[in-house]
Each structure stands twice: as C-alpha cells, then as structure tokens.
Inverse folding.
C-alpha cells in the first residue's frame, strides 16, 4: 500500500474512538463494496483503500505503531523496541559533546542490523550474519468471502511488493500461513528466512460468521411475511432463492444447507442462516399507516400475544 494518511481515507480525525472508526468504515464499505458496484474498478480500489485503513486503525496495536512510526511501523519484521532504542541513541548522540564518547548498554551493531537495513542506509555497520536469513512476521487483511471460499489472492506488502497467497477454504481470523523463502535474505549465498503471515478477516457489510456457519439479515415486506413466496437471498456463492412460508414471523429464520464456510480439515461446509427482517413502508408512499393498524387490531381478538412472558420465573 502506498504511503497515505489512513485517517483521511476513512474521513475521521486522529483522535477518533474505535466506535467512530468502525462506523465510518461500515458506512463507506456499504457504498463502495464490489458487490454493490460490479465492474467498477474505481469503487474496487476505493474499497481496498478504506479496508486497509480499517485494518490498521481498527486494531489498537497497529494504530499505535502507525501513529508513532507512520507506514514504516507496519512493515513485516519491524521491531518497535529497537526503533525506539535507535531513536534514543540518536538523540543522546546529538546531545553529547563532540569530544565525549557516547556510551550505551545497547549493542549498537545488533541494533542497527536488526532494523531491516535501517541503520545500514545511514552508513552504520552490519549485524553479525546468521547462517540463514531471519524469519519475518506480518499480517495480511483479506476479504470475508475470500476467507469463506478460499482461493488465490494477491496481497501487497511493504518492502516485498505483490505476493501471491493461497487462502485455505474456511480460514479464520488469526489463521497463519508460511511463505518459504520470503523472509530476510541470507548472507553470503545462505538461504533466506521465511515469512509467517497472520490472516486478518475484514468484516462484511451484511454477512457475519460463527464457526463454519454464515448469517445474513434479509429485509422483507409485510405482505411477503403474510403471503409467503420465493425471494432471492445473497450467499457466499452468489444469489440463491429461498421460499418464505406463509404467515412467517418477523425475525424468523431459514436455513440453506451447505452454503456456509468450509469446515477446517473437511470438505463439507456449514450452513447459511437467513433472518427475516420486516420493513415497514414509507408513510409518504402508502397513506395512513395508523388506519391500517386499526383495521388489523380486531384480527387479534382477545388473545394476549405476550401471555407467555407472564409465566417466566
């Protein structure tokens, strides 16, 4: 990702709360999500931008590193403690008289070599070479549907460029992937280290997930609840048709078998649970809703729809 102010990408101030950041992301995600804007590359690029910003600012640890070090603090293998120690050494060296030797308990050779070449770019010594390149750690944000379905994705890494990664079907937030030979280069022809990536799954605008099951709220009209019928519902595999039984209740649930996420260690998939969510018509388009409610009231007769609540102890 190019160096860009992540707060501006979400349209929030630097002092914003996590709740404000989450709300800003969800609002923008609903507007620019590829499912809402098919075949629109600008919307896709904007969605990637706001998703990356949310991945960083929505995580307290990453946000702290970004606020302190900028984009450099997000690079794979970045060591914040060493960076602070190096900064402290620089400040101490500037304060020391030119004829006075600066002393520190920090092993400067190890320190500068361990900053991913940071010290070397300023003309300082190299770290003592290991027999193999150092392993690197990193995190990779992926889309919700890529985690559910799995597949090959291309991700951008600071200092690495584009890397092609295979996401296992049914991956969870926190799933780790090892990329052999993508760590720090080995000295003197020695093999490079490995890159260990922790997957971070972005929230979806309308899907949620528990284990291998996926959940979605489906807006329906009052007539659809009363009369029933066939309605299209989004699934991780695309649109599907569900049959709503007549006289369905608001909040009723339907299940589509095998439309959830792949179960880890298995080829079977979880289910998709659809919650029916009634939507009232707009006043300006339907006339007097209160008169309609009055006309329906006699249909309940003398029944107390909350009678069962009185029996709860």
């Amino acid at each position: 990702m190019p160096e860009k102010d992540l707060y501006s990408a979400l349209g929030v101030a630097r002092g914003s709360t996590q709740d404000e950041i989450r709300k800003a992301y969800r609002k923008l995600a609903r507007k620019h999500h590829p499912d809402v804007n098919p075949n629109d590359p600008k919307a896709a690029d904007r969605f990637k931008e706001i998703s990356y910003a949310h991945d960083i600012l929505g995580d307290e640890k990453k946000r702290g590193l970004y606020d302190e070090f900028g984009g450099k603090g997000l690079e794979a293998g970045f060591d914040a403690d060493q960076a602070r120690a190096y900064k402290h050494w620089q400040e101490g060296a500037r304060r020391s008289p030119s004829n006075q030797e600066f002393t520190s308990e920090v092993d400067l050779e190890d320190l500068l070599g361990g900053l991913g070449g940071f010290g070397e770019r300023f003309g300082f010594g190299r770290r003592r070479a290991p027999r193999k390149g150092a392993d690197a750690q990193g995190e990779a944000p992926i889309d919700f549907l890529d985690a559910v379905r799995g597949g090959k994705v291309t991700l951008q890494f600071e200092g690495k460029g584009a890397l092609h990664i295979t996401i296992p079907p049914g991956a969870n937030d926190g799933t780790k992937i090892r990329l052999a030979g993508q760590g720090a280069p080995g000295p003197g022809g020695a093999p490079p280290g490995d890159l260990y990536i922790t997957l971070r799954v972005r929230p979806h605008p309308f899907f949620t997930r528990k284990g291998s099951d996926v959940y979605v709220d489906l807006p329906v009209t009052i007539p659809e609840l009363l009369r029933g019928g066939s309605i299209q519902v989004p699934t991780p595999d695309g649109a599907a048709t569900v049959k709503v039984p007549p006289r369905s209740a608001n909040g009723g649930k339907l299940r589509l078998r095998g439309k959830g996420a792949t179960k880890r260690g298995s080829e079977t998939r979880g289910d998709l649970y659809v919650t029916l969510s009634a939507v009232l018509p707009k006043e300006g388009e339907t006339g007097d809703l209160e008169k309609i409610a009055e006309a329906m009231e006699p249909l309940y007769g003398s029944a107390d729809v909350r009678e069962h609540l009185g029996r709860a102890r």
Observations:
- Residues 41-57 form the longest helix (17 residues).
- DSSP finds ten helices and eleven strands in the chain.
- The two ends are 57 Å apart (CA to CA).
